[in-house]
Amino acid sequence: MWRIAAFACALLFLSFESRALNTWGTDMSDLWWNPAENGWGANVTHQRDTIFMTLFVYGPDRSARWYSASDMRGTTTPQGGYVFQGQLFETTGPHFGGPFNASAVPRLVGTATLTFPSVERGTLAYSVDGVSVTKSIERLSMKRAEISGYYVGGIVGGVSGCGPSTSFAYTGNFTIAMNPSNNNIAMNATLQNGASCSYIGTYSQFGRMGAITGTFTCLDTAPGTFTASEIEAGTNMVSMRYVARYGACTETGVIGGMKF
Questions:
Q1: 185 and 255 both lie in a single domain
Q2: What is the DSSP string of 216-260?
Q3: pTM
Q4: Residue 19 above 60 pLDDT?
Q5: N or C end of the chain, less CB within 10 A?
Q6: How many domains does the chain have?
Q7: What is the pLDDT confidence band of residue 9, given thresholds at 50, 70 and 90?
Q8: Could you give the CA distance from residue 65 to residue 136 in angstroms, rounded to a whole number?
């Protein structure tokens, strides 16, 4: 009865460990940019409900300008996104080769707002001395993560839409194989209850996070579709969120696993 659980089950324990730095929501930490406007960007560090953003842009004289918003507080939207707002400061200071004078560094120039309707993309709106700017931004991807391997872990999740809503937690194991020449990915998983499933999909990279869309088949149920998002990988772990759909059922969960 638990389709994607077979894929996800092998992933539980590390999913929570990998997200321990941000228990408030999705971690928006990354380097963000507009691919149509190469040359400027925003560094975002996210901890709990607060973002520290540094913004590197250019002034009217085309010289480099450095702005920072060190206390952008977040709220959630009814659609499940996030909005962060805070004061924006121009950052200048003494020459790096001499003594540092902290009182000479910040100057309040306006405000900044980060709106994230999705994990991968958002909008940056800010003002500097009365000049307002609004830009579309997305996570900057430099290189695809390698998540191939054998994992042991588990999943927690729930099923709705096809009867009474239920929840579950399983342990298990799974393998991931990524094609080095393209973005095709194959996964096979076995749960503690003996369920076995296979997954075929396409992998995408969004900054430090990945995503997969594809189809799955299980021995004990009809085939369906799935998406995995917020995929984060380390040298010995992987974690993600997922949504699976089969018939009228929708299954969602968080999964994590340790690599062996």
A1: yes
A2: EEETTEEEEEEEEEEEEE-SSEEEEEEEEEETTEEEEEEEEEEE-
A3: 0.84
A4: no
A5: C
A6: 2
A7: very low
A8: 19
Q: Is residue 182 part of a domain?
A: yes
34 shares its domain with 127: yes
> pLDDT, tens digit, for every residue of 194-206?
778 899 999 999 9
pLDDT at 2 over 60: no
DSSP-based three-state secondary structure for 48: coil
Tell me what pLDDT residue 8 has: 39
The answer to whether 3 and 157 are in contact (CB under 8 A) is no
Would the CA dihedral through 36, 41, 47, 51 be positive or negative?
negative
- In-domain check, residue 83: yes
CA gap 213, 203 in Å, rounded = 7
Question: What pLDDT shows up at residue 18?
Answer: 42
Residue-wise pLDDT for 117-161, tens only, equals: 999 999 999 999 999 999 999 999 998 888 999 999 888 889 999
47, 147: one domain:
no
**Residue span of the structural domain in which 204 resides:** 3-20+143-259
Q: Alpha-carbon distance 223 to 204, whole Å? A: 22
DSSP character string of 145-169: ----EEEEEEEEEEEESSSS-EEEE
Is residue 25, in this structure, part of any structural domain at all? no
CA dihedral defined by 245, 250, 253, 259, rounded to 10 degrees? -20
pLDDT at 5 over 80: no
Query: Does residue 217 contact residue 197 with C-beta atoms inside 8 Å?
Result: yes
Boundary-marking domain end, from 107, 124, 139: 139
Among 86, 106, 139, the domain boundary falls at 139
Q: Quick one: pLDDT band at residue 40, thresholds 50, 70, 90? A: very high
Whether the Cβ atoms of residue 29 and residue 42 lie closer than 8 Å to each other: no
Contact, 223 vs 215, CB < 8 A? Answer: yes
